Amino acid sequence: MRHLRLFLIFFLLYGGLSAQSTISINARLLDSLRSLEVSQDITFVNTENRPLETLYFNDWNNAFSTKTSALARRFAEDYKRRFHFARDEERGHTAIHEIKNLHGDTLKWDRPGNVPDLLRVNLKQPLAPGDSIKLHFDYTLFFPLNKFTRYGVDEEGNYKLRYWYLVPAPLQNGWKLYSHQDLGLEFVQPYDINIELNIPTQFYAVSGLNLTRTITRKGFKTIKFEGDDRMDSKLYITKSFIFESISAGNNNFITNIEDEGIEFNTKKSILRRELNFLEQRLGEYPHQNLFITQEDYLNNPIYGLVQLPAFIRPFPDGFQYDLKVFKTLVYYYLQNSLLLNPRTEKWVIDAIAISLIMDYVDEYYPNMKLLGNLSKVIGIRWFHAADLEFNDQYPFLYMNMARLNLDQPLSTSQDSLVKFNKNIANAYKAGVGMKYLEDFLDDEVVKKSISEFYSKYKLKPVSDEDFERILRKNADKDISWFFNDYVETNKKIDFKITHVKKMEDSLLVTVKNLSNNHMPISLYGLNKDSIVFKTWIKDVTHSKEVMIPSDNIQRLALNYEQKIPEYNQRNNYKAVTSLLDKPLQIRLLQDVEDPRYHQVFMMPEFEYNLYDGIAIGPKLYNKTILSKTFNFMIAPKYGFNSNTVVGSAAFVNTNQFKNKNLYAITYGISGNRFSYGYGLFYKRYSPFLKFNFRTSYLRSNERQQLLIRNVNVQRDQNPDAPLQQPDYNVFNVNYRYSNPNFIKYFTTSLDYQLSDKFSKMSFTAEYRNLFKNNRQLNIRFFTGAFLFNDAKANDYFSFALDRPTDYLFDYNYYGRSQGSGLFSQQIIMAEGGFKSKLQPKYANEWMMSLNANTNLWKWIFIYGDVGIVKNTGFNGELMYDSGVRISLVQDYFEFFFPVYSNLGWEIADPNYDQKIRFIVSLDLNTLIRLFTRRWY
Q: What is the C-alpha end-to-end distance of the chain, expressed in Å?
C-alpha cells in the first residue's frame, strides 16, 4: 500500500503535469452588435495533489468593462487618456449567460474580489487530484475598439482579437491569477483547442491554428480551426484578406507586417533565412503556422531611426522589414514554445531574444551603423553617434535608466516595471547580459546552453531556475555573479584603475570596484588604438592588484570593447607612457558620450523676454545624451533689444543612492543676468542643496523634495523710480510633496523665507480628481503669513493676489515689470492664484485663497476664486472672481476669461480684451516632460 501511495504521488506530480485542458468553441459573429456569441466546452484536469472546490478562468475581454479594472489603472498610470474618456460601448465587456457541468447542473460563479477579468466557478463536488471535469459556458463577447491595445475592432470594422475566449488560469502549486494589464502575454498552460466559427460571407478568418475546413452557406460560412499544445489566442476576422501566407520549409508564415513594397520573392527569402537561423540556434518550432502580425510588432517594435517615415529612413531596402519581422518572429517563437511565467520570468525570453537579434545583425548586417547611411553625411559623421554600431543601442538604452537611477532588477515582475524598463531597458539589459556572459566565458557555452534549454523544455513545464541550471552546468567558470548580482539586483557595474606601478617588464595594476557586487571586469593593454593584451579580473570586492606584461602597452583600459554595460566608462583609462589618460575633445552640439575623451560641447541657444528681446549665444557644457552626476553649463548671450551680454551659468553635482527612499542629493550653484525692465538688469546667484525622496515602488509618482538655498539678487537702480530694495538675499527652505497622476493629482508645499527685512511662511496644496463620468474637479489652496515684515513701505516682498512680484526670480515671466499691455496679462499659478486684477492686490500681513474649477465640456472649464487679503492697519478684505478657463494643454497653454468679480460684471467692460489672462510655456524641457511622464 505504501508503494502504491508513492506511485500515485509520483504520477500526479510528474505524469499529471502532462495532462492538459481541452477547449472546444462554437462561436457566431454578430457584426451589427460588434459581438460574438460563444458556446464553449472546457475539460479541466486537476494537476495538483489536493482536491479543488473552485476553478478559476481568465476572462480578459471583460477587463475593458470598467474604469476601475487593473487594465484601466495601468492606462491611467501611463497617462493614456483615451480609455477613461471612451464611451461604455467603445470599451467592450463579457456577458456570462450560463455555466453548467457535464450533467447539465447550473453552477454558481462570481468575480472574486470584484476583479472583472477573473471568473471563479464553484463546483458541485470537489475535483480530486488527477481527475478531470467538463464545463459548458454560454456567453457573449462585446469587443472593445482597437485604439486601446491595438486589438479589438478597428475603424474598418475588422476584428483583431486576442485573449478573447475563456481559458483556465494556470495551476502550478496553487493558482496563478493575473489580470489583463496590456503587458503583452497571457499566462496559460498549453491546451488542445478546436474552434467552429460562423461569420458572414463577406468576412475572412485567420488564425495561427490549423485550418481544417470551410463550409459556405447562404449568407454565412463556417470555418473550423484546431491545434494541440497551444497558448496563443489571436484570431483575425477581416472584411478583406490582409494577410500573406508564405511557406518556409515545413512551416508556414501568416503575416501582415508592413513590407515597404518589398517583392514577394525577397520577403520569402528573408523569412526562410530567419527561420533557418532560429532552427540552427534553437531548434524546430513545435507548430506548423507562424502567425505574426503588425499589431504584435507595434506592441514590441524596434525602437530608433527604423521608425522614421520611409522617405527619410537612412537604412537600405529590406533592412527594416527584416528586423521588424525577425524581432516579432523571435518573441512569437519563444513565447509559444517555452512555458515560462511571463510576469516574473520574462527576463529569460528577453535575454534569449535580444541576444539572438544582436547575433542576427552581426551575421547578416555586420557593418550596419546605428544611424544607418546618415553616419556618412558630412556634419553628422563628425559626431560620435555616427561611430556607433547598430547593436550599440541595446546597452545605450538600458544605461539611460541606470543613469537616471530608475533601473530595476531583471527579476522584477512585469507589472511593477516602469514603462521604459518594461518596453525597452530591461529586455535590452537581459540581452546585453547574455553577450557579457559570452565574452566572459570566451567560448560557445552560452549559445550551446540556450539551444539545450529550448530543446529540452519546449512545451514542457519550466522555470528560470532550469535556465540557470543549464548555464551553470556548461560553464567552466563560476557565474554565480550573473544570477545573484546581474539578474536579481540593479547593482551598477563600475570599475576604475586607481594606480599603475611599472616593474621591470610588468605592470602592477590596481583596479577598484566602485559598486558592491562580484561581477568581473575585462582589462586591456592598448598601443594607440590596438589591443595588445586582454585579461579578466574576477572577485574584485573592493580593490585588487594584478600583474600584467608591459610589452608595447601605452595605455590601460577597462571594458575597452564596451561589451559590459558599465555605469561610468569615463574613469576606465590610465596612461602608462603618456601624460594624459585621455585627450580633450570639444564638439559642436550635444553628442553621445565617448569615454575615450574628456568631452566638452558647444551649441547655440536662445531665450526671450520683452526687454532683452531674443537673446542668442553659445552654451558650453558637458552634458551628454545620457545623464551624468556632474554637469556644468556656461551660456552667455547677446540680447538684441538690450544690446548687451546676458546669460546664465550653473555647476551641479548629484549623489545617487540605490534602492533608498532618499534616492538623490543634488547640490551646486547657479547664476544668471538678464533685464528686468527696459535698460535695467538683475544679477542673481544661488547656492543650493536638494534632497530627493521617493517610494520603493518606482511606478508610483509619489515624490518628496527638500530644497535649501540662498538667493542673492542685485538690481540696477531705476533713475525714474529708485528701488528701496535694490540688493538683497533670501534664505529659503522649501518642502514639497507631490503625487501627480492622471486620475488623482495631489501636491503640497511648505515654504519658509528669511531676509534681513522680513520672514514669511506659506503653504500650498493642489488637488485634482477625474471622476468616472469624466467630470474633473480642481482645487487649489494657499495661505501665507509674515512672521515679521520691515519692508511694508512697498509691496515688493508682499504676497500677491494675482501676479507675484517674483523677487526670487524663479518664474519665467516674459515681461515681469509690465503693469499694462499683453505681457502684464501673463499669469503664473502661484500665491493667490486669482485671474482678475483686483484691489488690494497685495498683502503685507497674511493672505488666504481658494481656487477651484470644473469642466463643462472637454477643455472648457468654469473657475471661481475666493480669498482674504490682510494688510497692516486694515481689516481683512474678502475677494472673489469667476470666469471661463480654456485649457488646451493643462498648466502649459491656457486662457482665462473673467466674468464676475468684486468689480462686478467684468465681461461688460469695454476694455475686456485687457482682462483676459493666459498661461504659455515656451520652455522646451517643460514641454518634453508632457511626453516623458508616460515612460518614466
A: 60
- How many angstroms separate the CA atoms of 148 and 143, rounded? 11
Q: What is the mean predicted confidence (pLDDT) over 301-327?
A: 81
Nearest to 151 by CA among 61, 73, 67: 61
Q: Of the candidates 227, 223, 224, 186, which has an alpha carbon nearest to the alpha carbon of residue 208?
A: 227
Predicted TM-score (pTM) of the model is 0.92
What pLDDT sits at residue 13? 40
Cβ atoms within 10 Å, residue 366? 9
Distance CA 727, CA 716 (A): 9
- For 894-915, write each residue's pLDDT tens digit: 999 999 999 999 999 999 999 9
Q: How confident is the model at residue 349 (pLDDT cuts 50, 70, 90)?
A: very high
The C-alpha atoms of residue 699 and residue 742 are separated, in whole angstroms, by 13
pLDDT of residue 397: 94
Q: In this structure, which long-range contacts are made by residues 540-545, counting pairs with CB atoms below 8 Å and at least 24 apart in sequence?
A: 540/495, 540/511, 540/512, 540/513, 541/513, 542/512, 542/513, 543/498, 543/510, 543/511, 543/512, 543/513, 544/510, 544/511, 544/513, 545/508, 545/509, 545/510, 545/511
- Which residues neighbour 166 within 8 Å (Cβ) at sequence distance 6 or greater? 40, 42, 57, 58, 59, 119, 137, 139
Overall average pLDDT of the 787-810 stretch: 94
Q: Which residues are registered as beta bridge partners of 866? A: 850, 880
The residue with greater pLDDT, 722 or 416, is 416
Q: How far apart are CA 556 and CA 535, in angstroms?
A: 11
pLDDT, one tens digit per residue, over 165-213 is 999 999 988 999 999 999 988 999 999 999 999 999 999 999 999 999 9
> Which triple of cell numbers denotes residue 244?
500573406
Q: Indicate whether 529 pLDDT > 50.
A: yes
Grid cell locating 277: 537561423
Residue-level length of the chain: 936
- Please check whether residue 44 is in contact with residue 168, taking contact to mean a CB–CB distance below 8 angstroms: yes
Nearest to 167 by CA among 4, 335, 21, 331: 21
DSSP lists the bridge partners of residue 681 as 675
Beta-sheet strand order (sheet of 35-45): 93-101, 132-142, 35-45, 21-30, 191-200, 220-230, 210-217
Write out pLDDT tens, residues 369-416. Answer: 988 888 888 878 888 888 899 999 999 999 999 999 999 999 999 999
**Assigned C-alpha cell, 172:** 502550478
Contacts for 546 with CB less than 8 Å, ≥ 6 apart: 508, 509, 511, 523, 535, 537
Give dist(CA 775, CA 769) in Å, integer.
8
Portion of the chain with pLDDT greater than 70, in percent: 96
Cα→Cα distances 582→43, 451, 599, Å: 69, 42, 10
pLDDT band at residue 223 using 50, 70 and 90 as cut-offs:
very high
Beta bridge partners of 786: 760
Alpha-helical segments (H) within 41-102: 70-77, 82-85, 88-91
Instruction: Report whether 58 contacts 167 (CB < 8 A).
Output: yes
SS3 241: coil
Count of CB atoms situated within 10 Å of the CB of 519: 23
Nearest to 799 by CA among 744, 752, 747, 760: 760
Quickly state the pLDDT bin for 325 (edges 50, 70, 90): very high
Q: How far apart are CA 522 and CA 196, in angstroms?
A: 59
Specify the long-range contacts of residues 349-353, CB closer than 8 Å, at least 24 apart: 350/410, 350/426, 350/427, 350/430, 350/431, 351/410, 351/430, 351/431, 351/433, 351/434, 352/282, 352/434, 352/450, 352/454, 353/327, 353/427, 353/431
What three-state secondary structure class fits 684?
strand
